[in-house]
Write a structure and sequence with these properties.
Elements: H1 2-5, H2 9-25, H3 30-64, H4 78-83
Length: 103
């Protein structure tokens, strides 16, 4: 899955949203679902790594300007990025699936 390493953040997020959509709609067989889930995990990790790199660049720029990030202004760490609902495949749904809708 070396194609993921070449993706921009936006491309990887779009691909992750596509994976989540396919899994939620149940469009694929079990074995294919497992492969999709694995790809989704790799896409999520790639996005998280790109966010960490961007945060580090911002911190360097701010430090060079003499405006280092203070503790109350700190950017999300890996731990919070991993728990960020925007990075969670299950939270990317905009509407409940048919199975979750009240009858």
């Amino acid at each position: 899955m070396s194609d993921i390493a070449a993706m921009s953040f936006e491309e990887a997020m779009a691909a992750l949203e596509g994976v989540v959509g396919q899994l939620e709609r149940g469009e694929v067989a079990l074995e294919a679902s497992i492969a999709l889930y694995e790809r989704g995990a790799l896409l999520k990790a790639h996005c998280a790594q790109m966010l960490r790199a961007a945060e580090a660049k911002v911190e360097l720029i701010r430090a060079a300007e003499g405006r280092a990030v203070t503790p109350h202004q700190s950017m999300p760490t890996e731990a919070t990025s991993a728990n960020d609902p925007r990075m969670s495949a299950s939270s990317m749904r905009s509407t409940p699936s048919i199975r979750e809708r009240p009858s």
